Amino acid sequence: FPAEVMDEADGFPLTVDAAAALAEGRVDLRSTPLVTIDGEDARDFDDAIYVERKGGGFRLVVAIADVAWYVRPGSALDAEARRRGTSVYLPGRVLPMLPERLSNGLCSLRPDEDRLCLVAELELDGDGVVTAEKVFSGLMRSQARLTYGEVQAALDLGSLPGREKLVPMLKDAWALAEKFKKRRGARGAIDFDLPETKVELDEAGAPVKLVRRERLDSHRLVEEHMLAANESVARWFRAQDLPVVNRFHGPPDEEKLETFAKLARAHGLNVAYGVPTSKELDALLKQLEGHAEQRALNQLLLRSMMQAV
Question: pTM for the whole thing?
Answer without folding.
Answer: 0.89
